[in-house]
Amino acid sequence: MMKAAVIDSPERGPRFADFAEPVVTGGETLVEVTAAGLHPIVRMLASGEHYGSHGTLPMIPGIDGTGRAPDGTRVYFGGVRAPWGPMAQRAAAGLVLPLPDGLDEVTAAAIVNPGVGAWLALTRRAALLPGETVLVLGATGVSGRIAVVLAARLGAGRVIAAGRNQAILERLGAAATVTLGGPDDRAALAEAAGPDGIHVIIDYLWGQPTEAAIAAITRRGMAHTAPRVRLVEVGQMAGPTISLPADVLRSSGLEILGSGPGTIPLAEITGAIPGFMALAAGGDLPIDIDEVPLADVEPAWRRSDGGRRIVLRP
What we know:
This protein is an alpha/beta fold. The protein contains 9 helices and 14 strands. The strands form 3 sheets. Strands 3, 4, 5, 6, 13 and 14 form a 6-stranded mixed beta sheet that branches. Strands 9-8-7-10-11-12 form a 6-stranded parallel beta sheet, sandwiched between helices. A two-stranded antiparallel ribbon has the order 1-2. A hairpin with an 8-residue loop joins strand 1 and strand 2. The radius of gyration is 20 Å and the shape is elongated. The two termini are about 15 Å apart.
């Protein structure tokens, strides 16, 4: 037996308890876990809210982590078969990649999931072109902050950061910022867009903020030629649904895309990880981390991340 975060029911979070040792099959590697990220998707999968939930109980949650391979190599890992998962002392991993020099195990466990998601949303789904204007909705969260920096690195001509935490927005170095939750989010976003408009929206929020952004790009009249706007939906931190007027799709040039497993082949997602880890090894991507002992998983699970990524340490 080993110690792990164990979920017995989707209605409650995990408890710190004993769980059977993982069984290693062909193609898997037994990893001594060093760190596992408590990402928003981990909570959603465990609760059954996410479309990828498998429903196997009891289970160990998590989607990725870092640790040591049997030969002592520092590795990033994923692909752990249910009911096992990364939030344990050991994991049998189907995906194991060596960590590059300069990237420590805690940072890797925190940053790969949000960072690769932002990278693929910008490059694969939005197909960002040099000089285009990017709006990041939810820019004060962990993923959003990384997306702001990556958009600039990928050649965006202008990056607009929108979120509720004004103090974080002011530190992001974006060309314009919008503090959401004001008297008129639509007007604030339209003003930030300027006369050239927005070409790409990376959306971690959905719900009301997305409705405001769509209203901000909507144009009236019949003589205009609407620019193409790719809205890439990555998360739903502000709500699971939106109201979408039909005429928006006819008048605004809006295209709505999703980004995540199912829209991007898994092989392409995993194929992007080594390159992103090499980028992250430079140490200049924004990430704030709270390290928490695995034994304290219950209170950590209930905590709001507040723009910081919780990493559990066995």
